[in-house]
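Hi L., both proteins are below.
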Amino acid sequence: MSSQGKSNPYDAIASLYDRWNTSVVEDIDFYTDEAVGSGGPALELGVGTGRIAIPIAQAGIAVIGVDSSAPMLERCRERAREAESPSSSIFVSVTCAIRRERESPPRHLALPRLSPSPR
């Protein structure tokens, strides 16, 4: 359920989404390079399970991820914890999928291709 109590179509497929999208990798380097070039932080709307945001965070760029599906954000949190290494932490909060720091506003906005809503 979304924050307004309405069902989000992605809620039902959050646990399957990563397996469904496993072959979609051609845009990750593009968004990561753009975020690194901007100096960050980056904002990703529709962050989902973190397919784009986590590689950006691993490249050392602060990322704020926003999504309307709580189950997708929970999967993103899990993936962020799994991706952490001793040299770089990825911080996740309840309101944002990924946040590394709060000091400055985003300088880069990532809007990966929009996939059709599941039916």
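That was the first. Here is the second:
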Amino acid sequence: MSWATIMTKCNCDMCNESENEGEVMEINWQPCPFCGEVQELEIGEDVSVFSNHREYFVRCGNCGSRGPENSVSPNKAIELWNERKEG
């Protein structure tokens, strides 16, 4: 399995509300299991309007696939993406 190190900025509310706003992070990603893309990977966030509950995940901007969701942090989303089981 090949990995890629990408410099990216997380745009989730958790990061935007902290002192790290605008900070570029170095993230080691596994490529998308469906299209093999690495450059188009991003951290996504879903927020429930009613409960303010947040779910973080990794999304491929090339093919639209999403990794497992978690309510802990964007970093946990990256960890789950990288630890996923292959076929």
